[in-house]
Automatic annotation (TrEMBL):
Homology family: Belongs to the chitin synthase family. Class IV subfamily.
Transmembrane segments: 63-85, 105-127, 139-163, 169-189, 201-221, 233-251, 280-301, 321-341, 353-376, 432-454, 862-888, 894-913, 925-949, 982-1006, 1169-1188, 1215-1236
Superkingdom in the source lineage: Eukaryota
Pfam families: Chitin_synth_2 (PF03142)
Region Disordered: start-end pairs: 1278-1310
Membrane association type: Multi-pass membrane protein
Organism: Eleginops maclovinus
Listed EC numbers: 2.4.1.16
Assigned GO CC terms: plasma membrane
Catalytic activity: [(1->4)-N-acetyl-beta-D-glucosaminyl](n) + UDP-N-acetyl-alpha-D-glucosamine = [(1->4)-N-acetyl-beta-D-glucosaminyl](n+1) + UDP + H(+)
Protein name, per record: chitin synthase
Compartments in which it is found: Cell membrane
Enzyme kind, highest EC tier: transferase
Length: 1310
């Protein structure tokens, strides 16, 4: 993005020159000033709003997603309950769809529905117990949990297998709502023991009364119907007893609050065990459930005079009916549970979770009863007026039908449902009323017992364990399970004004700069000011986030001949100009049409032990600090800048204050807890000097770290910007890397590299053992220079992974950074990245056993996946050579050996030249060869397609590459609709494969010993001599110079109130700001026309021989006054100690440098020997197997282009077959994980839009203006910006330029 600044710079220069003219007593007649005109209202400003993210499309997608999720939860719950009730109906005595002798089959399916969730829980808990450290619970805890699970499992089996098959369909639908009775009772106990016990007792008490009333009506209806029927009395008693036992299932959800408000040590230990020993308890409880359910099922069948042998001889028609019903039940239950979780994570609790589940029970009732009524009424109408009651209909039609299944299965199922109602006389209003009353009472009881969910507050992408009490869902009563399993303690939390879940997050934005140009600096400064507007500090309404911005400017000083001390270089001065310019943009862009010229408040500048510091308070109160580093005072380069801010922000600012409190006598345990909490909620956002990001991207990254405490770092989607073929290649390369590779790492393991240009790190993770301390290690060996300094962000992630922290990728968080546009710069960048990546991956692979035990997110299978990826990258040059050799064989019909030699000779020559020639010459040769290989790659692509047509098969490595990768990339791009245009760059990417995977690999490996940065490096201008060393001063001269500096500094701190009467002095460098004058908005002031002789006098100011860097910067920043300050003693001593211990400039030790150079060359030679020997072995092995193809080959069925077997076999050498197998497995893994990750990203997007409401923010507060009170410089977002026309589009909530607001505590009522 190119930003134009001529307008503002012209104004600043005009003001500067006017002030200088007044100071120099230049006659006004000699100054020609073009005053501001009311008609000149046009302006040029950079884009500060989010124009990259397609928020309109995302909002439409949100609406569609919410509708789909709501319908899915409702539909799946309906299918789950309906299929389960059909199984109950089929097991009822007297139903005809399934004969009585086949009833054990229906009961077996009911048992499967009960057992399946327990089996899934057992497998999941077993996996977690094996991968994570699980503590054994106390015996008392195990006993209590198993007793409760015994009651629940026995009650569920008795209720569903024994009792419900003897009840009517209405009772079976609604009696499950009575399972909320014990939960409602525990709610009363919990609220009575809590401090807020009088606020929410009414719904819980009402729920208990309604559910008990339902049981009373149910008992009265069935027992009074036939008091002599003892069997029915037994079934009714078992139904009531079983449902009461099942209601104990969700007792754990209330244990925490009861234990916290109780003095019982046993309850507290019980809660601790259920939380920390969950995996082992789940394994035991799931096994117990399986055993109990199987025991009840096995015992009941013979007791009810049924035979299990019928299971082996079921007719095919009945088998199909049973299989469909149980299949629908199992699948719909599992999917309903997953979609319900998605609804909660998306902040759609009411619309997509509670309401659909409430309506599911009613819909099931309608689904079963309406067909019964319709069939009954149709039968009555067919009788031509003959009266018949419901009992007669049951005897004559329902029970009198033929046993054989003739006609529609649906009709027989309706008759079977009607048969369950025949026991009751539906012709009597009393029976109908009692049955309806019990059903309504149970349903209203469930609603009242879960009414607290309507006021539940959850965070975005809330963790499942924070949403649900138990991992287990109940497939036989899915809606009750989901509603009652939601954590009740979340309701208590929501009443608190500030809770642990909503602790204020402190974010430090840490950017490193070096030689960024104007546009690149403008990107990041505007991004920081955006965040200041998004989360203002003054009059702060948002308590979820506070932040500070720190920019660490490397090598910012230079020697200037004739000036005292070192001065800021041109890059440092440009940054000051940009800060002033952006400040003015953000204080004027949203004001009214007419405004007053405002003065930017004074900012602070000070000298520090490492160089200098500029502190700017942004318009809304947040602070941005620029640390100018002098490489003669402190160690330079990016990693040392990172170490500098790690120790300053985490060591000094975070820890020192707590140490001071401890010295004053405060309790150490409370201080420790406070420190741990602050470390957990403090994040560092690592940035490059050219990163462009939106506030939403930062918030999305914060969500990941806030929700998951073991996440140590999270990175966003990095978009390279720029123009030219090199950038086009990188656009597609970055896209594929993020779409497939990073998503696969995130899903099946951990991301191995969180890029330093835009990544959020947790302070607690950085301050962990063996992370920050080891990251501060100085490179002492040759391998350290490659692993530590060439890819510092990857090495930091390696340290985090080794310490057990998780690194994640968030595709919803977008950031933009400039990419190398020059071929040479791209090669030099990848020359750093390639060896560093390989070194860190090898380091991780070498510690596989330790990492897999220490890091729960990394398994040995994941490390094997990384090993395969590493081997593939190592053998990439040989694979490219084989591909080119195959082209020669196909086109020119050359023998395999000759074509292989022809394919290897050019890379071999380039390899030899790289050892002999300079780096720039190597890159020039690679550029020429890349063009040649691009044409050859085009031929290769056509050749592969031709070979597929000629051989009529796709079972070759090259064919599989084309057939698998192209559709994979296209579908992946479709799954990223906002980036689908990047597919067109894929054509260039394919042509550049030899350059990227052959030539670049050779170049990076041969130049491994070159540890220079390679990018943004500038050379001194021609003819500029190095500064001569200063002559040694005498003591008298030193004293004189010290006195002169003191007097000069005193003068710098004063402001001139009168114009100078003579020459130029230090006071003239800080002009007086003119008074505000009423003027039209957006006017442009032309340059002041000053005679040439006077202009020369003004230019002398910038060449003052006594000027220091402070006065130099003050003279540059004419529109933003810089007031000199000083560090406090504590911070100054900290910097001195830090420099002495970690950051002293490296000494120019010629002997050591010579040794390191030799060690790097020796390391390069060893690694290159192994690297290229492996490629040679791969080539030789492939060549040998091709010679003896008849002996050493694997025959596979030949498949034509229509994927049909041709009757022939194709021979593939074993190595080629392993390549096909490994490649196919890798692609499938990446493709599946991509789909899963896209769903998670969509959930996060929808949740973000649900909590960060897109609307114009009308904030009437003035921006924070420190140091002195001045007039308001910001009127906030004017309504004219968005509502300039009363006839504008009413759908303004979809505007791309709208801002985000959020509830005060970080959560939102949903």
């Amino acid at each position: 993005m190119k930003f134009l600044r001529r307008t503002k710079v012209g104004i600043l220069r005009s003001q500067m020159r006017i002030s200088s003219v007044m100071d120099q007593n230049i006659p006004v007649s000699e100054v020609v000033l073009l005053t501001r005109r009311p008609w000149d209202t046009a302006r040029e400003v950079p884009d500060i709003e989010d124009i990259q993210t397609p928020w309109k499309m995302i909002k439409i997608l949100k609406f569609i997603t919410l509708c789909v999720v709501a319908l899915s939860v409702f539909g799946l719950a309906l299918c789950s309950k309906a299929s389960f009730l059909l199984l109950i109906t089929l097991s009822n005595e007297g139903t005809k769809t399934l004969p009585d002798v086949m009833k054990p089959v229906a009961l077996l399916c009911i048992g499967c529905a009960l057992i399946t969730p327990s089996v899934l829980l057992f497998l999941k808990s077993l996996w977690k117990a094996c991968c994570q450290t699980s503590k054994p619970p106390r015996l008392s805890t195990v006993a209590l949990v198993l007793v409760c699970e015994l009651f629940v499992a026995g009650g569920a089996a008795i209720l569903t297998i024994v009792a419900m098959p003897h009840l009517d369909i209405v009772t079976n639908v609604t009696i499950l709502n009575g399972l909320a009775v014990f939960s409602a009772f525990l709610q009363i106990i919990t609220q009575c023991t809590a401090k807020e016990r009088n606020k929410s007792l009414v719904p819980s008490i009402t729920a208990v009364i309604l559910i008990l009333l339902g049981y009373i009506l149910f008992l009265y209806l069935y027992i009074t119907k036939d008091p002599t029927d003892k069997k029915m009395a037994i079934w009714v008693g078992l139904a009531v007893g079983g449902s009461l036992l099942v209601s104990f299932n969700w007792w754990e959800g209330y244990l925490r609050l009861i234990s916290e408000n109780s003095n019982s040590v046993f309850l507290r230990l019980l809660f601790r065990d259920t939380k920390k020993c969950q995996n082992l308890l789940n394994i035991l409880s799931s096994l117990l459930r399986i055993v109990v359910t199987a025991s009840v099922l096995v015992a009941y069948v013979p007791l009810n005079k049924m035979d299990w042998s019928i299971v082996k001889s079921i007719p095919s028609h009945e088998t199909k009916i049973i299989a469909i019903i149980i299949g629908v039940q199992l699948i719909s239950s599992a999917l309903c549970h997953w979609f319900a979780l998605v609804a909660c994570k998306m902040h759609a609790l009411r619309r997509c979770f509670i309401l659909p589940l409430y309506l599911a029970s009613l819909a099931v009732m309608v689904l079963f009863i309406i067909p019964v009524i319709v069939y009954y009424q149709d039968y009555k109408s067919d009788l031509n007026g003959t009266e018949i009651n419901f009992t007669g209909y049951c005897i004559g039609v329902v029970d009198g039908r033929n046993q054989n299944l003739t006609g529609s299965v649906f009709q027989h199922l309706v008759y079977d449902v009607t048969h369950t109602l025949c026991f009751l006389d539906m012709s009597k209003i009393l029976d109908i009323g009692i049955l309806t009353g019990s059903a309504v009472s149970w349903w209203l009881g469930l609603v009242m017992a879960t009414i607290h969910l309507w006021h539940l507050k959850v965070l975005r992408i809330q963790r499942t364990q924070d949403l649900l009490t138990r991992r287990l869902y109940e497939g036989t009563f899915i809606e009750q399970s989901l509603l009652l399993n939601t954590r009740y303690d979340a309701q208590i939390k929501s009443r608190m004004k500030i809770s642990e879940a909503f602790d204020t997050t402190m974010v430090y934005l840490c950017a490193t700069m070096w030689h960024e140009n104007y546009d690149e600096m403008m990107n990041i400064i505007i991004s920081i000011f955006r965040l200041d507007k998004y989360r203002p500090k003054k009059g702060q309404q948002h308590i979820d986030l506070t932040f500070e911005a720190h920019i660490y400017f490397d090598d910012a000083f230079e020697n200037v001949e004739g000036n005292r001390g070192r001065h800021l270089n041109k890059y440092g001065q440009t940054l000051v100009e940009i800060l002033a310019e952006v400040y003015t943009i953000f204080t004027s862009i949203d004001q009214g049409f007419f405004k007053k010229t405002q003065k930017i408040p004074d900012q602070k500048i000070l000298t520090t032990p490492y160089g200098g510091r500029l502190v700017v308070t942004m318009p809304h109160g947040n602070i941005i600090t620029v640390h100018y580093k002098d490489k003669e005072l402190i160690r330079h380069k990016k990693r040392w800048s990172q170490i500098m801010y790690l120790y300053y922000l985490l060591g000094f600012k975070l820890m020192t204050k707590h140490y001071g409190k401890w010295e004053k006598g405060e309790d150490e345990s409370s201080l420790r807890a406070h420190v741990e909490k602050e470390k957990r909620n403090t994040y560092l956002l690592a940035l490059d000097g050219d990163t462009d990001f939106q506030p939403a991207a930062v918030m999305l990254l914060i969500d990941r770290l806030k929700m998951y405490p073991r996440v140590g770092a999270a990175c966003g989607r990095i978009h390279p910007t720029g123009s030219g073929p090199a950038v086009w290649f990188q656009k597609f390369e970055y896209a594929i890397s993020h779409w497939l590779q990073k998503t696969a790492e995130h899903v099946i393991g951990c991301v191995l590299c969180s890029p330093g240009c835009f990544s959020l790190f947790r302070a607690e993770a950085l301050m962990d053992d063996n992370v920050m301390k080891k990251y501060s290690t100085k490179s002492m060996e040759a391998s350290n220079y490659i692993q530590y300094d060439q890819g510092e962000d990857r090495w930091l992630c390696t340290l985090l992974l080794k310490q057990g922290w998780r690194v994640e990728y968030n595709a919803a968080s977008d950031a933009y950074t400039n990419a190398p546009e020059d071929f040479k710069e791209l090669y030099n960048q990848r020359r750093r990245w390639g060896p560093s990546t390989m070194a860190n991956v090898v380091d991780l692979l070498g510690a596989t056993n330790v990492i897999s035990k220490k890091n729960p997110s990394i398994s040995k299978l994941f490390m094997f996946y990384q090993l395969f990826a590493l081997v593939s990258s190592i053998l990439a040059p040989a694979t490219i050579c084989l591909m080119i050799a195959g082209t020669f064989t196909f086109m020119f019909e050359i023998q395999g050996s000759a074509s292989l030699v022809l394919g290897v000779i050019p890379p071999l020559i380039y390899l030899i030249l790289c050892f002999k020639l300079k780096s720039d010459t190597q890159i020039s040769i690679a550029a020429v060869m890349s063009v040649i290989y691009a044409f050859l790659m085009l031929v290769v692509s056509m050749t592969i397609i031709g070979a597929m047509v000629r051989d009529k098969t796709i079972l070759t490595p090259s064919s599989l590459f084309i057939v698998a990768m192209n559709p994979c990339y296209i579908v992946t791009a479709i799954m990223h609709p906002q980036e689908i245009q990047l597919v067109f760059y894929g054509l260039l990417y394919i042509l550049c494969i030899p350059s990227a995977y052959l030539l670049l690999t050779i170049y990076s490996m041969v130049n491994m010993n070159n540890v220079s940065w390679g990018t943004r490096e500038t050379k001194p201008a021609a003819g500029v001599a190095k500064p001569e060393p200063a002559a040694k001063q005498t003591n008298v001269q030193k004293a004189k110079n010290t006195f002169q500096r003191f007097v000069s500094c005193c003068k710098c701190c004063k402001k001139s109130n009168q114009p100078s009467q003579g020459g130029v002095n230090q006071k003239n460098l800080i002009p007086e700001t003119p008074q505000p004058v009423l003027q039209p908005q957006n006017t442009i002031v032309e340059d002041v026309r000053i005679p040439e002789e006077k202009q020369k006098q003004l230019d002398i100011v910038f060449d003052s021989p006594t000027q220091s860097w402070l006065t130099q910067l003050q003279s540059v920043s004419r529109d933003m006054q810089l007031v000199e300050g000083s560090l406090d003693e504590e911070e100054e001593s900290f910097w001195i100690e830090l420099q002495k211990k970690y950051l002293e400039p490296l000494q120019d030790d010629k002997e050591r440098q010579k040794k390191i150079v030799n060690d790097l060359q020796e390391l390069r030679n060893k690694i290159n020997f192994a690297f290229f020997i492996l490629n040679a072995l791969w080539l030789v092995a492939t060549f040998t197997l091709q010679l003896y193809e008849a002996t050493f080959s694997i025959e596979l069925p030949k498949i034509n282009l229509q994927l049909e077997y041709t009757g022939e076999n194709v021979k593939i050498e074993p190595i080629g077959f392993m390549f096909i197998l490994g490649f196919a497995t890798s692609v499938i893994i990446q493709f599946i994980t991509m789909f899963y990750h896209r769903i998670c990203t969509l959930i996060h997007y929808v949740a973000f839009l649900g909590t960060e409401t897109i609307q114009p923010k009308h904030d009437t507060e003035e921006p924070c203006l420190p140091c002195k009170k001045v007039a308001s410089v910001s009127e906030t977002v004017s309504t004219s910006d968005y509502n300039h026309d009363s006839d504008s589009d009413s759908d303004s909530d979809l505007s791309d330029v709208d801002l985000y607001t959020r509830s005060n505590n970080g959560g939102t009522q949903v």
